[in-house]
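Figure 3 (text version): structure tokens given as input.
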């Protein structure tokens, strides 16, 4: 079978008309001779609405019951999508994650895919049906539903495409592809024709809400090309590939000699406004203090984005600062407060700042080219934007600034690196 995997995000199936348009794409692929698997998210903002509903009922909803609740959103989508396909004369069948053979391990709300048993999917494809699978969910031990974390439908689609041997995976959303910056903020942002897995991982980690980072990691390890494209326009989107070359399959031609040049290149920018900055100050400057604090955060399951330690003058104390997602802020603060109480001296205290934004420059070769960092700092300095924290790697430079200056920083850097679309 020639299998094509299509994934439609929540904005692409937000209402009956959009569901019909998405179903037309699946029907067209089926009529063109493909065996089609569709992965869908919950319609529109339904996941957030269900979470809000749960919080109205319970101040601290049990994780298992929250998963049962939010998984219902995707079940709504698969049923409606299958009905739309049938209306177009194309037989379709809807499958929940467990029915599709997706098995998970790990905690509720952030489970990982353990394995996929594709027998039911393959059987339905052989029968000529479009298979519509609920994203974001699978079967945990004991048969319970478990969800895969925010953006988990991307992970479902990539995992199915890899397991079923699809040549690539198409990700449909309300954007036309991946841009040099968020086009809602930077009006002249340029759409990228292709981007490498590593750069896309950095971009996702920097806050670009295009695809779930875990899905990019899986696609990279599987060598599976992805195409991010609009559900509402016919034009080609952006390819995410290993070698940044456009195309959906590796070339079958004999290898040709190519020019070899190490390049430093800025490909795109991202802004993330959904994080908080937490600091624990007046920490005794002695071995083991930082380890004890990080162990407390790790035990609470708090993911950390940036870590900074700074000395506090002659007082023989240090400050440790961390960035984490807003959704983890309360638990992170509680974990740090407990760590502070256990530190000797009793003077350590916790500070929180949610009025920050993280602006990131993504590309390649930054470590061997200090000019990129120098331009970042010079540009922000000339724009009178103060940097609170900095982190750098060969692929990304991130700066934490005041929230009120985040978009100004993004615009200044986009112009400084010449990323605007050509007119």
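Below: residues designed for each position.
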């Amino acid at each position: 079978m020639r299998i094509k995997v299509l994934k439609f995000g929540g904005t692409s199936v937000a209402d009956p008309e959009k569901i019909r348009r998405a179903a037309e794409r699946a029907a067209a692929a089926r009529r063109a001779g493909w065996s089609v698997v569709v992965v869908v998210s919950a319609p529109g903002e339904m996941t957030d609405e269900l979470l809000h509903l749960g919080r109205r009922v319970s101040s601290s909803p049990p994780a298992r019951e929250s998963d049962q609740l939010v998984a219902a959103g995707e079940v709504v989508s698969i049923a409606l999508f299958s009905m739309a396909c049938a209306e177009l004369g194309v037989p379709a069948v809807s499958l929940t994650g467990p029915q599709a053979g997706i098995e998970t391990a790990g905690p509720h709300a952030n489970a990982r895919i353990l394995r996929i048993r594709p027998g039911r999917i393959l059987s339905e494809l052989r029968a000529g049906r479009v298979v519509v699978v609920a994203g974001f969910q699978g079967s945990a031990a004991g048969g319970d539903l478990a969800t895969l974390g925010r953006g988990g439908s991307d992970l479902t689609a990539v995992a199915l495409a890899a397991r079923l041997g699809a040549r690539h995976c198409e990700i449909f959303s309300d954007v036309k592809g991946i841009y040099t910056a968020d086009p809602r903020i930077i009006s002249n942002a340029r759409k990228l024709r292709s981007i490498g897995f590593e750069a896309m991982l950095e971009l996702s980690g920097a806050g670009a809400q295009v695809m779930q980072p875990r899905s990019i990691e899986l696609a990279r390890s599987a060598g599976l090309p992805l195409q991010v494209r609009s559900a509402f326009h016919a034009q080609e989107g952006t390819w995410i590939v290993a070698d940044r070359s456009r195309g959906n399959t590796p070339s079958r031609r004999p290898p040709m000699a190519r020019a070899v040049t190490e390049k430093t290149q800025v490909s795109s920018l991202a802004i993330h406004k959904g994080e908080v900055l937490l600091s624990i100050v007046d920490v005794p400057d002695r071995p083991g203090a930082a380890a004890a604090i990080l162990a407390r955060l790790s035990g609470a399951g708090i993911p950390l984005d940036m870590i900074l330690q700074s000395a506090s003058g002659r007082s023989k104390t240090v400050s440790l600062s961390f960035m984490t997602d807003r959704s983890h802020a309360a638990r992170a603060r509680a974990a740090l407060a407990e760590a502070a109480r256990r530190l000797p001296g009793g003077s350590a205290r916790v500070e929180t700042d949610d009025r920050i934004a993280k602006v990131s420059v993504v590309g390649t070769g930054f470590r061997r080219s200090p000019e990129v960092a120098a331009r970042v700092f010079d540009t922000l300095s000339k724009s009178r934007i103060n940097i609170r924290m900095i982190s750098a790697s060969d692929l990304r430079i991130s700066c934490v600034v005041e929230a009120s200056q985040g978009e100004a920083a993004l615009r200044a850097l986009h112009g400084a690196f010449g990323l605007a679309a050509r007119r």
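The first helix runs from residue 16 to 31.
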